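Title: Comparing notes on inverse folding

I've been comparing how different people in this forum approach sequence design from structure. To keep things fair, I'm posting one structure and asking everyone to reply with a full sequence. Here's the target:
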């Protein structure tokens, strides 16, 4: 998901700020490859983050639904995995895709985003309950997901890590 709208902080700095933002996101909506996997950015437009982050899933869902339908026609799939609860996991929920839904949390979506507003907290809980699997990166994150979504959600803890380089 790509939001081709500059943040408020760039807009407040006027034309220089907007130029800096534009330079920082070259190819914002161009297809690219990541580790041999083709990536097709999906654009969406939403109000500024500080006022509306809890609703961004609603703004993302229409273009995400079209992108998933097109992708499914070209290459059928059984699973959609969102890398955060809000807003992408929520957008997947709203897209009504019949595939299994997995969602991962890395922390900010269950600490800051969920607390941003009543709407954000409600949609976080809804997304957690609707997911077929919630992948948490720690025991604490799993407990927080159960606190937000209820005890009946399906969770798995997967500790993320990386190999250390040779000394």
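Reply #1:
Here's my take.
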């Amino acid at each position: 998901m790509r939001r081709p709208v500059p943040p408020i902080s760039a807009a407040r700095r006027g034309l220089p700020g907007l130029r800096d933002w534009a330079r920082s996101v070259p190819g914002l909506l161009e297809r690219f490859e990541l580790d041999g996997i083709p990536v097709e950015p999906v654009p969406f437009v939403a109000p500024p983050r500080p006022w509306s982050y809890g609703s961004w899933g609603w703004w993302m869902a229409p273009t995400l639904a079209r992108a998933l339908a097109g992708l499914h026609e070209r290459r059928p799939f059984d699973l959609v995995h969102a890398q955060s609860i809000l807003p992408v996991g929520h957008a997947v929920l709203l897209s009504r895709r019949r595939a299994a839904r997995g969602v991962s949390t890395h922390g900010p979506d269950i600490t800051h985003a969920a607390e941003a507003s009543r709407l954000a907290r409600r949609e976080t809980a809804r997304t957690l309950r609707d997911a077929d699997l919630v992948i948490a990166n720690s025991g604490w994150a799993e407990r927080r997901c159960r606190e937000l979504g209820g005890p009946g959600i399906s969770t798995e803890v997967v500790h993320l890590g990386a190999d250390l380089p040779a000394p």
